[in-house]
Amino acid sequence: MFGRLRVCLPPLPEQTQIARFLDHETARIDALIEEQQRLITLLKEKRQALISHAVTKGIDPTVPMKDSGVEWLGEVPGHWEIRRLSRAFMLHRGYDLTRDDWQDGPYPVVTSGGVAGYQSLCMVNGPGIVIGRYGSTGTVFYVEDDFWPHNTSLYVSEAYGNNFRYGYYLMQNVSVEEHTGKSAVPGVDRNDLHQTLVPVPPHSEQRAIAHFLDKENGRLDELSEEVNQAITLLKERRAALISAAVTGKIDVRDWQPPADQLSANQPPADQPAATHQPAASAAPSDAHENQHPQESPHG
């Protein structure tokens, strides 16, 4: 018993066998989860590389290039302009909003961490771009409709006719963290950030680049969602397997690890070698094809 909680307590040899079985099976599932998490990381890197190339090199590989004169940009299409950020997308500090002043409504309140809620008044007409100023510095959000930018953020107050969606992707390629202040609570220095030199294509190309990135990133987002769903299912399977084993729903007394692991680990002579590899996609009730734990006679 744990306090007043009654639990199943099999004989010690059976406890040891259950632990061996679960150590082996959960390690296999954990390895699969780790593979999926690595894939998520690769998809994020692919997304950032795609954005970086599109907003600095364009999407037409045949156009002549020129040296931008900016180290982090390198070469850019010859017909693009290079401007200070303040002459492409002017940034302004967001507006304070206390809980006492907050009245529920239809307009999103966008903080450095994203949408924090909805309020009855808006301060900026959409579409808009919001950048984290304090807290989650450098985060970038695109807002389609009218909104309230919180004072923990910066927002684009003037785009000079440039495409907001292109600006959203461009801001993701600007190293905002390099423009944080030196105070005890670092925040993005708007005036310093404004001095950053950025590429500005013609408006028609801005729209084409934004459309291209929307489409490609949508595809990557779908892949990421599929991988996240797979991770969720693996975690659920892990929990179900543990529950089934420790409550006696499956009988693992005759279970042995795969033969290749037995030979590698040199087990005691009184432990017979297994002859079947567990199926990778087995559910808790059929964890080992042709060598599966039997339903417990006392479960």
Overview features:
15% strand, 299 residues, Adenine-n6-DNA-methyltransferase TaqI, Chain A, domain 2, 36% helix, alpha+beta, three-stranded mixed sheet, Helix Hairpins, four-stranded antiparallel sheet
Question: Can you describe what's shown?
Answer:
The longest helix is centred in the N-terminal third of the chain and has 46 residues, at 12-57. Strand 7 (128-132) and strand 8 form a beta hairpin. It is built from five helices and eleven strands; from the N terminus they run H-E-E-E-E-E-E-E-E-E-E-H-H-E-H-H. The strands form four sheets. Strands 4-10-7-8 form a four-stranded antiparallel beta sheet, covered by helices on one side. A three-stranded mixed beta sheet has the order 6-5-9, with no helix packed on it. It is α+β, with helices and mostly antiparallel strands and 299 residues long. The chain is elongated, with a radius of gyration of 28 Å. The protein has two domains: 10-79 and 202-299, Bipartite methylase S protein (Helix Hairpins, Orthogonal Bundle), CATH 1.10.287; 81-200, DNA methylase specificity domains (Adenine-n6-DNA-methyltransferase TaqI, Chain A, domain 2, Alpha-Beta Complex). The chain has helices spanning 12-57, 164-171, 190-193, 203-246, 259-265; strands at 65-67, 75-77, 81-84, 90-93, 107-111, 114-119, 128-132, 140-143, 148-149, 153-158, 197-200.
